[in-house]
Every structure is written in C-alpha cells, then in structure tokens.
C-alpha cells in the first residue's frame, strides 16, 4: 500500500528529472496512465472536459470526490492530487480545512490543490497545519476567468510580474509542497522556478519548470472544443472514436454486426460471456 509516491517525494524532486504529471478523471484512464506518470491531478477541469460545463466553476465538491475515488481505484503508484472546487475554500481557512478533510477522507488522495497566491495563503497554511499536503496554482487561474474577463496570459507587465513573485513566495511560505504555474510568460515562469525552493509544475509556462502537466483529453486529442496553444496532441483519439463509430454504424445497418462470433448459440460449454 505504501508504493505510492507522496507529496514529500515530489517536493524532493526540485531541480531534478522533470516531474511527469497529467490530469485523470476516470478509472480506466488512471489505470492506463499510472505506470507512466509521477502525479495524477483530478483537476476541476473535469467539469469542462467530461461534464461539458463552460468553465471550471461548474465543478462541485461531490463531483471532485466521485472522480477522485475513481482515479484512486485505478492507480497504485502515482501521487494523486484532487482540486478543491471554486466555492469550497475562498471564504475562510476553516471552510478550506473542512473541504480538504472531506476530499482526503472520502478519496484517500495524497494532496489537494487550490488556486491563488497571497489571497489564499492563510487557507494553504491551515490545510497544511491540519496535516494535508497542498499544491498551489498561480499564474492563469481558470476559477477566476469570469473576474479576469477571459483566459489571459500572465507576466506580460512589470506590475503583474511583481504580483506573480509575491504569489509564488506566499504559496511556498504557506507550506505548499509544489505549485502549478499556468499560462505565464516563458521567461517569467523560468525565473519563478529559480526563485522558489518547491517544484514548479508548468502548463503553458516553461520547459525550465520542475515538471509539466497537461489535461489528459487534450494530450490524447480527444478534446472537441478549441485547445490552447500550449497543448501538444500526442494522439488523435477524436479520429479513432469517430472512425470506430462510423464503422459500427455501417455494420449495424447492413446486419454485418453482430456476426456469429458475437452471439450465443447452443454450442456446449459456451455459456459464459
Ligand atoms: O484542472 C486542471 O486540469 C488543472 C491543471 C490544468 C493544472 O488545474
Ligand atoms: Na484546476
């Protein structure tokens, strides 16, 4: 049971071989990814990717816990981190600790992640003090997309760069074991990585980050909506699924499926599925 990579193992990898992270939301995908990754994030992107909501604000605590349980059942080795959904932690450190405890107790995950820097440092510190490891998330914060008026790349102005450094420092000082840097100018993400002593996990950030993460559906080419510039598609599952559906449809219509191989007849000893 202790073969799982934990938050402290991730923390120790600062400056070493890049930390391989992907999101996962389901049992079968967790099974497929677990041998290859160090960390699986049950991102609140699940609300958009699997449930079709317009933003991550569609995620609920119940949704995060259900997918967290599925990913834990499907993985044995990866450090599993579950996102705290919008509305579960911003109000107070006490609210954040209550929600984080529920996530960890009901899923068995290794850590939780929340978005923000200086503004939620007290929440990070309180969750860490309760014995739950926390991953930070700075730069572009999808839970703030409505407030920000869109998905805007961070670190373009001197003023914003100063804010990013303050956020990175606040997250580190609050006791986070690592921090996601999303949608941030490359040179700034690289400098932030050298500025703090916990691993940075980049997405639309820099190759100099201590690790990288992508949304699994984006990475395998299954995303049907527009994918951001920072995504690299390593497979084309859209085409694979559409092609399979088209061939199945043709075979059903022509009665080529099911063939004798896929039906039950009176042959002896063939009564199992
Ligand atoms: O929800 C998510 O998928 C994330 C990653 C993109 C870091 O937060
Ligand atoms: Na997220």
Automatic annotation (TrEMBL):
Q: How is the cofactor bound?
A: Binds 1 Mg(2+) ion per subunit.
Main location (coarse class) = cytoplasm
One GO biological process term is:
methylation
Q: Which pathway does the database say it acts in?
A: Cofactor biosynthesis; (R)-pantothenate biosynthesis; (R)-pantoate from 3-methyl-2-oxobutanoate: step 1/2
**Keyword set for this entry?**
Cytoplasm, Magnesium, Metal-binding, Methyltransferase, Pantothenate biosynthesis, Transferase
Q: Which GO terms describe its cellular component?
A: cytoplasm
User: What HAMAP family would the database entry show?
Assistant: PanB (MF_00156)
Family in the record: Belongs to the PanB family.
- The name this protein carries in UniProt is 3-methyl-2-oxobutanoate hydroxymethyltransferase
Q: Which organism is it from?
A: Mesorhizobium hawassense
Protein's gene:
panB
């Amino acid at each position: 049971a202790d073969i799982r990579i934990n938050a402290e193992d991730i923390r120790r990898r600062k400056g070493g071989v890049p930390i391989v992270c992907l999101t996962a939301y389901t049992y079968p995908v967790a099974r497929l990814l677990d041998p290859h990754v160090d960390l699986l994030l049950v991102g609140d992107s699940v609300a958009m990717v699997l449930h079709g909501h317009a933003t991550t604000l569609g995620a609920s605590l119940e949704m995060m816990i259900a997918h967290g349980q599925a990913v834990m059942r499907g993985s044995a080795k990866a450090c599993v981190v579950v996102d705290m959904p919008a509305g579960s932690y911003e109000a107070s450190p006490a609210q954040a600790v209550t929600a984080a405890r529920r996530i960890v107790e009901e899923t068995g995950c290794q850590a939780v992640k929340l978005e923000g820097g200086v503004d939620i440092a007290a929440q990070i510190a309180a969750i860490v003090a309760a014995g739950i490891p926390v991953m930070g998330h700075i730069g572009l914060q999808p839970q703030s997309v409505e407030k920000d008026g869109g998905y805007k790349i961070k670190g373009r102005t001197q003023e914003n760069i100063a804010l990013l450094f303050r956020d990175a420092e606040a997250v580190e000082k609050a006791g986070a074991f690592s921090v996601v840097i999303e949608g941030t100018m490359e040179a700034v993400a690289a400098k932030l990585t050298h500025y703090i002593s916990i691993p940075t996990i980049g997405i639309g950030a820099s190759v100099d980050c201590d690790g990288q993460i992508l949304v699994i559906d984006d990475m395998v080419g299954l995303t049907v909506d527009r994918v951001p510039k920072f995504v690299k598609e390593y497979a084309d599952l859209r085409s694979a699924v559409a092609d399979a559906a088209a061939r199945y449809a043709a075979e059903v219509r022509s009665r080529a499926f099911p063939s004798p191989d896929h039906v039950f007849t009176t042959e002896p000893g063939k009564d199992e599925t």
